[in-house]
Design goal:
By secondary structure, the protein is an alpha+beta fold. It folds into 2 domains: 27 residues; 110 residues, Phage tail protein beta-alpha-beta fold (3-Layer(bab) Sandwich). Helices cover 44% and strands 23% of the residues. The chain has a 3-stranded mixed sheet with strand order 2-5-4. The chain has a two-stranded antiparallel sheet with strand order 1-3. Strand 4 and strand 5 form a beta hairpin. The N and C termini lie far apart (46 Å).
């Protein structure tokens, strides 16, 4: 290749990379080709994070329950105490995603005992994840429960 062609090629690659960097909002919030735009997904994630802060659960008492059972109870309580006026938008979805390497059913892990009062939903979720050695990630339509890294 001639030097002029190489310079033109490098300039094109540089322009493409900089335009991609300006439009990138983070891998976790990018829309798939069939999904909504990244900005709409980011707003959905923000709305779900707000729900985790604003929904206050008056009492949580778990004793020798699985993570799946705890999340089901939290899901029901979140719907009950969500201040959202639209019935179709009340509550929070939880999805348990098992690890790829060990295939262990994290939904079956036990939470020996947990007693909390007047606690935000997100904080209750943190305690459950901490007791079971898990983590969570907020996505556009659900809170994803994952194995610890």
């Amino acid at each position: 290749m001639k030097i002029k062609q190489i310079i033109t090629l490098l300039a094109g690659i540089s322009m493409l990379a900089s335009s991609k960097a300006e439009n990138n909002t983070g891998a976790e919030n990018e829309a798939s080709p069939a999904g909504p735009p990244a900005s709409k997904m980011a707003k959905s994630v923000q709305n779900l994070n707000n729900k985790l802060k604003k929904i206050i659960i008056p009492e949580v008492h778990f004793e020798d329950l699985t993570v799946a059972e705890c999340l089901n109870i939290l899901r029901l309580r979140a719907r009950e105490f969500d201040p959202e006026p639209d019935e179709n938008r009340k509550g929070v979805n939880f999805v348990i995603r098992n690890g790829k390497d060990n295939g262990k059913d994290i939904g079956g892990l036990k939470v020996s005992e947990l007693r909390l009062s007047n606690i935000p939903l997100g904080t209750a979720l943190l305690y459950i994840c901490s007791k079971a050695g898990l983590r969570y990630r907020v996505e556009a339509n659900a809170v994803i429960i994952l194995p610890a890294r």
